[in-house]
Write a structure and sequence with these properties.
This protein has nine helices and eleven strands. By secondary structure, it is α/β, with parallel strands linked by helices. It binds SN-glycerol-3-phosphate and calcium ion (CA). SN-glycerol-3-phosphate binds next to strand 3 and strand 9.
């Protein structure tokens, strides 16, 4: 982001590649994830759903329509039907032939590599299956889970308390700063969950909120950075973890504090 005066403190954030690097490659494809890894992402973010025949696949939307050459809801299609689709050609002809990854393929692609996998559960009810697949790959120490469904995260925590959990939300309601912080504390203290990272949207976080999260030793990740301005501002407020469509910006350019 430009030149810095001498004695500038430089901090490199913990960067999560949102669905891979959708600014340079089709989202949620192995090509996109490999690019994220090559660009130096600290985490690779992805979205998991279950097919009609009970298999875990990677897809953001409820349907395959936007990102593939097919149509239909993910939970109305079999794995075989989804694997026959092209997940790259709509983005650019040069990515033709990219398939919708299975969750297992995603895990195996980065097993043992120096990157954390930030796995978002788009469906409720798949918690046990997700954990089983992570365990069967021996990757419990390489995965972090997140969801917009707090009860689903509670279930994850009950099954595997050792797995780091992030609760996704936008704190735009309630409106006041005090009420937002209070809301955050309630989320952390929810149920029997030991702790939960507060993965709020970047528009919802502010210095006091970020400090609260940091004081609890959380690695809260914030979404989704697609422009440079809010990123620099939020880093100054103490934010640690941006989730971004532009991994190439954030791993390549140190930020002035
Ligand atoms: O990682 C957070 C972010 O992915 C949540 O929103 O809709 O892109 O899955 P969405
Ligand atoms: Ca996501």
């Amino acid at each position: 982001f430009g030149q810095y005066p001498e004695n500038t403190i430089i901090q490199r954030p913990i960067v999560a590649a949102h669905r891979g690097v959708p600014s340079q490659a089709p989202e949620n494809t192995m090509a996109g994830y490999r690019l994220a890894y090559d660009l130096g992402a600290d985490q690779i973010e992805t979205d998991v759903q279950r097919t009609k025949d009970g298999q875990l696949v990677i897809m953001h939307d409820n349907t395959v329509d936007r990102t593939t050459n097919g149509t239909g809801a993910v939970d109305a299609l079999t794995l075989e039907e989804i694997r026959a689709l092209d997940a790259g050609v709509k983005y650019d002809q040069k990515f033709a032939g990219e398939k919708v990854p299975t969750f297992k393929e995603f895990l195996q692609g980065f097993k043992g590599k120096n990157v954390l996998l930030l796995v978002e559960l788009k469906d409720k009810g798949i918690e046990q299956q997700v954990i089983d697949e992570i365990k069967s790959e021996g990757m419990m120490d390489q995965v972090s889970i997140q969801s917009f469904y707090l009860d689903s995260m509670q279930t994850m925590n009950n099954i595997s308390p050792e797995l780091p959990i992030g609760y996704l939300f936008s704190a735009s309601v309630p409106k006041t700063v005090e009420a937002k912080l209070q809301n955050a504390k309630k989320m952390v203290d929810y149920g029997t969950m030991n702790d939960v990272n507060l993965n709020a949207s970047y528009g919802s976080i502010y210095e006091e909120y970020i400090q609260y999260s940091r004081q609890r030793g959380q690695m809260s990740m914030h979404w989704t950075f697609r422009a440079e301005d809010p990123f620099a501002e939020k880093l100054k407020q103490g934010m640690i973890g941006p989730i971004t469509d532009y991994t190439q910006w954030l791993t390549a350019s140190p930020i002035q504090l």
